[in-house]
């Protein structure tokens, strides 16, 4: 069975602080994909990144970076120099051989000015 | 190219009423799925389909029916609505099974309230 755990329910930071959102996953599939989505207050789901299980390179996109470690089954997301516009719910998700996309519970990030 | 279209955006039902949430995609995606989102629970998979004529249960299928008669459409039916089905529903589609540009496209959501 697949499972995604986001242990941090809510995080509050002050603008310009760095913040890391944790994601731990479980799967028996050898090929799988990991995702991060952002859900702003408007409610839509915004795709941030996709990683396949064979690519453990860390990725940086502007202020966003992702650390994928198969040894610890983790796919953590760091926002550097956070901004108020980063306030949202962030979801980590996992898909495997069947195509089913399973989500974690989500982490609500509040960035205060 | 409209992507994934969900209708309606908002709906209020009385307990016991039935209704169908519509989901349509124009990307020729084989994979389609329905989720419900409740506070603190993330998005939970209700039902999914890997192609026309094929459906399967997700994590929380009870109280919901689906069918997939065409590649484009994947309606979600509530036969007898209950207050516990008050939620925001998302439909998603993907070309994942073809190994192309592996990603999921989500609809804008349907906010359902059952009173």
Q: Between the first and last Cα atoms of chain A, what is the distance in angstroms?
A: 41 Å
The end-to-end span of chain B amounts to 36 Å
The share of residues in helices of chain A is under 10%
Q: Structural class of the secondary elements of chain A?
A: mainly beta
Biggest sheet statistics of chain B: 7 strands, mixed
Low-pLDDT stretches of chain A: none
Number of strands of chain A: 12
Beta-strand residue fraction of chain B: over 45%
Helix content of chain B: under 10%
The chain pair forming the largest interface, with residue counts per chain, is:
A-B, 22 and 25 residues
**Which radius of gyration of chain B do the C-alpha atoms yield?**
13 Å
Walk me through the structure.
The complex is a heterodimer of chains A (113) and B (115). Chain A is mainly beta and 113 residues long. Chain A is built from no helices and twelve strands. Chain A has strands at residues 3-5, 10-14, 19-21, 24-26, 33-39, 46-52, 59-61, 64-69, 74-79, 88-95, 101-103, 107-112. In chain A, the strands form three sheets. In chain A, strands 2, 5, 6, 10, 11 and 12 form a six-stranded mixed sheet that branches. In chain A, strand 5 (33-39) and strand 6 (46-52) form a beta hairpin. In chain B, strands 2, 4, 5, 6, 9, 10 and 11 form a seven-stranded mixed sheet that branches. Chain B has a four-stranded antiparallel sheet with strand order 1-3-8-7, with no helix packed on it. At the A-B interface, strand 6, strand 10 and strand 11 of A face strand 4, strand 5 and strand 9 of B.
């Amino acid at each position: 069975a697949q499972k995604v755990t986001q242990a941090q329910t809510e995080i509050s930071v002050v603008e310009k602080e760095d913040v890391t959102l944790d994601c731990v996953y479980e799967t028996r599939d050898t090929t799988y994909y990991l995702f991060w989505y952002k859900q702003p207050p408007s409610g839509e789901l915004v795709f941030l990144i996709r990683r396949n299980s064979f690519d453990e390179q860390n990725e940086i996109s502007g202020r966003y970076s992702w650390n994928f470690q198969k040894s610890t089954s983790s796919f953590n997301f760091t926002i550097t120099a956070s901004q108020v516009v980063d306030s949202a719910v962030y979801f980590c998700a996992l898909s495997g051989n069947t195509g089913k996309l399973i989500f974690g519970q989500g982490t609500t990030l509040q960035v205060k000015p | 190219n409209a992507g994934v279209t969900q209708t309606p955006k908002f709906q209020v039902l009385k307990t016991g009423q039935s209704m169908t949430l519509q989901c349509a995609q124009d990307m020729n995606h084989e994979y389609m799925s329905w989720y419900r989102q409740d506070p603190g629970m993330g998005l939970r998979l209700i039902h999914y389909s890997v192609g026309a004529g094929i459906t399967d249960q997700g994590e929380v299928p009870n109280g919901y029916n689906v069918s997939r008669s065409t590649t484009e459409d994947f309606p979600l039916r509530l036969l007898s609505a209950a207050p516990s089905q008050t939620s925001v529903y998302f439909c998603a589609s993907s070309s994942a099974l073809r190994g192309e540009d592996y990603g999921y496209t989500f609809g804008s959501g349907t906010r359902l309230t059952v009173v």
